Amino acid sequence: MIDRAIPLLYLGAAVSFILALKWLSAVPTARRGVIVGAAGMALAVAGTLLKPEIESYRWIAVAFVAGTVIGVPMAMMPMTAVPQRTALSHAFGALAAALVGTAEFYLKAPAIDRFTMGALALEVLLGFLTFTASLMAFGKLQEILPTRPITWKSQNLLNFTLLGLAAASGAYLVARPEAAWLFPVFGALALAFGVMLVIPIGGADMPTVISLLNSYAGLSAAAMGFVLNNKLLIIAGALDGSSGFILSVIMCRAMNRSFTNVLFGAFGQAQASAGASGERRAARSATPEEAAGILHVASRVIVVPGYGMAVAQAQHKVRELYDVLTKAGVDVRFAIHPVAGRMPGHMNVLLAEANIPYDRLVEMEDVNSDFPQADVALVIGANDVTNPAARHDRNSPIYGMPILDVDKARTVMVIKRSMSPGFAGIENELYYLDRTLMVFGDAKSVVGNIVKEFAGGT
Amino acid sequence: MSQDLELGLYVFVLATFLGLEIIRRVSPLLHTPLMSLTNAISAITIVGSILVAGEQKTTLSTVLGSIAVACSMINIVGGYLITYRMLRMFRKSGKNRP
Fold first, then answer.
1. Which of A170, A283, A385, B31 lies 20 to 30 Å (CA to CA) from residue A255?
2. What is the average pLDDT across A259-263?
């Protein structure tokens, strides 16, 4: 009786996951989506625990407790740490898939049909490579590892060789599952390829990498579904895989780059020389007092936040600035570039955490036509995404990348530590325009001072 | 091609198309919660993990399965909780956060 109910529980779980993602499309229904998603997962877990194949619950219970004890603190991390947390959870998810695949191999081989073995090889390959690649991404985001791209000669050759060998050993195992000695080699090759894949990728490309790993973790779960002949796993894995895929396409498009270029192009390296050329021009600098004075006579302000704002932990001071400006009747909006921050949508979450209303956050396509009417564009910790060279300078490495047209505002104010170039390693000609004022200093204290001056001046 | 495989491929292809259509509609505002939610959903690997850990066929499979259950559980608990926490932070102008 219970046996027959289990497929229905799984069906219910699949429907819940689809509804969860559907409701996540807009803020008012999004929380409902999360609850439905969690309920779906509860159905799936309950259905699995009811299966008659399960002999003992002891280790399952221990693992439940261990997972919960580690999972809760991971949910309490500050929003600035969400990218590395996400990378770490991709690693856990991929490891789970790879370990189940490994266990299934030793249980079933050599009496395993070709197709199941093919799915199993795919599950293990994607699982192990995503595991180490996500750990590397975590290391770079947490700045345990150097964030700049690490490259050397014939790196791509080595990477393709590793991937080729891994694919070849996987294929051999499909043809001859009795070759159990090859399985550890296969796993090790996948693990090694994951490490090598992320080493040459720089910090600024992390949004794309994280999205891609999200997709791989999902596909690995779908492959597990084929091995176990479980449709729920196939559906959930396919949803996850397509989500990661869409996000990585959006990220690539926002940087005007292709997948291959992100994965094998080693961005920062090639442009280091381009940044050094060109004569030194003078930029105009201003004090926080002067900046506050300009804001006093402004009626439309667009703030352009970048990852530098998050690094300086300035988002709460930015909220104070938003509050005093709004109180003074100034229209304040925030222009969000798709790749601002370290993962898709990161900037929105940071500003929401600082209690800035989400209807004040505007996406790039919607805000660009408003810059010519803005009195002040206030750039805080963003660099390459505001560089006008992307529009007109064919020789610039970022030529063609969609940018925020801050240079069209009447006055541009840039809060920045120094004149040092951004991740792409190129100078930003925005800083040398006549309408641009540079306010040098730490974003948190500069914005704090502007708030003080602004409030004092009224 | 076996019937299970054929059916599985149909399910996979259709779910991928559905996923692409649904995810395309998600506002860029919510891309971070989207990723943490799909991350939690991909912890559906817990189904396979529980089976391998609970069948108790060999020591190796029980150990690997139990580690996999713990890993999936981390993502389930952590993923849903942090997504919910994030979404609670989004508020409209004029309304204070609860």
1. A283
2. 75
ipTM reported for the complex, 2 dp: 0.95
- Confidence bin at A266 (pLDDT 50/70/90): low
CA dihedral A146→A149→A152→A155, nearest 10 degrees, is 120
Q: What length does chain A have?
A: 458
Pair B66, B50: CB distance under 8 Å = no
Specify whether the CB–CB gap between A391 and A403 falls below 8 A.
yes
Q: Which amino acid is at A232?
A: L
Tell me the pLDDT band of A280, cut-offs 50, 70 and 90: low
What topology is assigned to A279-457 in CATH? Rossmann fold (3.40.50)
pTM: 0.90
Catalytic residues of A: 384
Q: Which of A75, A82, A227 comes nearest B32 by C-beta?
A: A82
Residue pair A120/A128 in contact by the 8 Å Cβ criterion = no
Residues A409 and A275 sit within 8 Å (Cβ to Cβ): no
Q: What is the DSSP letter of A285?
A: B
**Residue linked to tokens 């590892």:** A145
The answer to whether B55 faces chain A, any CB pair under 8 Å, is yes
How is chain B split into domains, by residue range?
28-89
Domain ranges of chain A: 1-76, 80-265, 279-457
Cβ-Cβ contacts under 8 Å for A450 (sequence gap 6 or more): A288, A291, A292, A295, A321, A439
Q: CA-to-CA distance for A372 and A345, rounded, in angstroms?
A: 25
Residue B1 CB partners (closer than 8 Å, separation 6+): none
- Report the residue of A10, A19, A29, A41 to disrupt the B interface, i.e. the one with the largest count of B CBs within 10 Å: A41
**Which residue is listed with tokens 């805080």?**
A380
Is A414 in a helix, a strand, or coil?
Answer: strand
Query: Please, are residues A126 and A223 in contact by the beta-carbon 8 Å criterion?
Result: yes
